[in-house]
Specification:
Shape: globular
Mean pLDDT: 81
InterPro entries: DUF3465
Radius of gyration: 14 Å
CATH class: Mainly Beta
Order of helices and strands: HHEEEEEEE
Keywords: Signal
Pfam families: DUF3465 (PF11948)
CATH superfamily: Nucleic acid-binding proteins
Strand content: 35-45%
Protein name: DUF3465 domain-containing protein
Number of domains: 1
Low-confidence stretches: 1-34
Largest sheet: 5 strands, mixed, barrel
Organism: Solimonas marina
Distance between the termini: 33 Å
Number of strands: 7
């Protein structure tokens, strides 16, 4: 039942985003929770695993790269809702965001996994084997796949 609710919230968010011309709800500042924020809040509440999500937020912390096994760039975003999410970006499969700084806006598409700190998003890159939905990060005008 929880997975069905999360899926329904995700579909509703995507429909809302497409109805707004693909903007994803970003750009307004009326204080309302954005569809992506609502989806991620529900995913956090449900302890969701392996949920494909889209969203965006401002960088609040840049962590050291994880160099054990596949290399990953790691940073924390704060969503408009206040929730934080760790982005774990595979830099063996996609370019690194070299000029990333605290305060920067980053939008993303990837796979959400729950953790007590707000969750993490990985698979923010293409899948060379073609078995997983491709993800991406956008920083400024550049998209990292």
């Amino acid at each position: 039942m929880k997975k069905l609710l999360v899926l329904a919230a995700l579909v509703a968010g995507l429909l809302f985003a497409f109805a707004r011309g693909g903007e994803g709800g970003r750009g307004h500042d009326d204080g309302a929770m954005l569809p992506s924020d609502a989806t991620l809040a529900q995913a956090f509440a449900d302890h969701a695993e392996r949920l494909q999500v889209r969203g965006g937020g401002h960088v609040v912390a840049i962590l050291r790269d994880d160099t054990q096994g596949s290399r990953h760039q790691r940073f924390v975003l704060r969503l408009d809702s206040g929730q934080t999410v760790l982005i774990v970006h595979n830099i063996d499969l996609a370019p690194r965001i070299d000029d990333l700084a605290e305060g920067d806006l980053v939008t993303f598409s990837g796979e959400y996994i729950w953790n007590p700190q707000g969750g993490l998003v990985h698979w923010t890159h293409h899948d060379p084997a073609g078995r997983h939905a491709d993800g991406w990060l956008q920083h400024g005008s550049r998209i990292y796949r």
